[in-house]
């Protein structure tokens, strides 16, 4: 029977398709304290993990994994943190209460609601109260419009940055997939090793060619995995395609 990811709304299950996508599956911790942290992170009411209950790798950050060995492992003490919760499971932000606001609530007449409309300032003679909490908005309509336009400009900028980031990620995946396919066609790697390297599909290959730039953790893990399981493919990338992979002596030093 296939193992399905236990996260809310996640349909990933252990199989050829998920392995091809670089998705790995991880059992819940055996220790009671750590297992409880994972269960609480899922926010599923009454949920209790069984011995074979698993979570897929899409609910962990990239830095949560140790990919230096033959098997992708989670680092000690990590807790799943990436979920797509519906609105009713989102954590609500607690309302900030100050001494002044508590005192004001205590002095409200019985039956008075904070959400009820305030009496007309002219009728009560307390004109100052009608401007409570309006200091956050500009009084001038032009100033309000300017603030809205400024906020809209920030949103558009963030959207452009997001689209550019997605395009860069797609280019990186296409480049890496093409590279792995070339290695496989030349019989320098087998299907099993290709599956292992698929999890680095978003690694920008072009950055490996920039000498003098320090290797990132993902680049180090990719180099270690490829050299360990496919030394011929590693040499082909370094010597033939002139991709600036670390020298084998550097890999040995990293493993010490």
Automatic annotation (TrEMBL):
Task: Please name the GO terms that the record assigns under molecular function.
Answer: DNA binding; zinc ion binding
Which positions fall inside the THAP-type domain?
1-83
Q: Establish whether keyword Zinc-finger is in the entry.
A: yes
Q: What residue intervals traverse the membrane?
A: none
Q: Which keywords describe this protein according to UniProt? A: Coiled coil, DNA-binding, Metal-binding, Zinc, Zinc-finger
Q: Where is this region: Disordered?
A: 94-130
One of its Pfam families is Tnp_P_element
Question: Record's SMART domains?
Answer: DM3, THAP
- Any keyword Coiled coil? yes
The domain of life is: Eukaryota
Q: Which residues form a coiled coil?
A: 148-196
> Would you tell me the protein name for this molecule?
THAP domain-containing protein 6-like isoform X2
